[in-house]
Amino acid sequence: MTTGGGRPQWPTDKLNALRLGRRLVTEVTAAGPARRGFVDIRPVTTAADADARRQGWTRSDPDRTFTLEHWDYDANQIAGFDHDVAAILVRATTVTGEAQLVAALEAWNLQPEQFLHPWQTDDPR
User: Fold this and answer.
1) Beta strand 35-43 pairing with 88-96
2) CA dihedral (9, 15, 21, 22) positive or negative
């Protein structure tokens, strides 16, 4: 999905999840056989998020800071508690705001519509 200017646009449900501080994940090509790779987007939690949580609500923020991480796992370890054994952090970056997030995804050859909620993937984290 793209905007009129050709820039990728987030599906509404996924954009809302990010603004509410929820993590999203996509599976990517792994480094080799018997490996599986995942990229996750984690919104950085702030003191304002903690205050809102204590008060029983979730704060929406379109200008959040996000951490992107590309992890590569041993495919045989993914289903167990030891998924981090032989895990490799391929690359990571931190960006601020939705525009920088889209730019970082473009640099990593990823599109917003590829991302799913963690429970919709095999991501072990």
Assistant:
1) unpaired
2) negative
Tokens of 112: 């917003």
User: Tokens 């730019």 appear where?
Assistant: 103
| pTM for this entry | 0.87
CB 112 within 8 A of CB 71: no
CA atoms within a 13 Å half-sphere pointing along the CA-CB vector of 59: 17
42's enclosing H/E stretch is: strand 35-43
CA-nearest of 8, 20, 3, 5 to 114 is 8
pLDDT, position 8 = 72
Could you write out the DSSP letters of every residue in 45-100?
A: P-HHHHHHHHTT-----TT-EEEEEEEEEETTTTTSTTTTTT-EEEEEEEEESHHH
**CA-atom Rg of the chain in angstroms:** 15
Look at residue 48 and tell me whether its pLDDT is greater than 80: yes
pLDDT tens, residue by residue, 11-32: 999 999 999 999 999 999 998 8
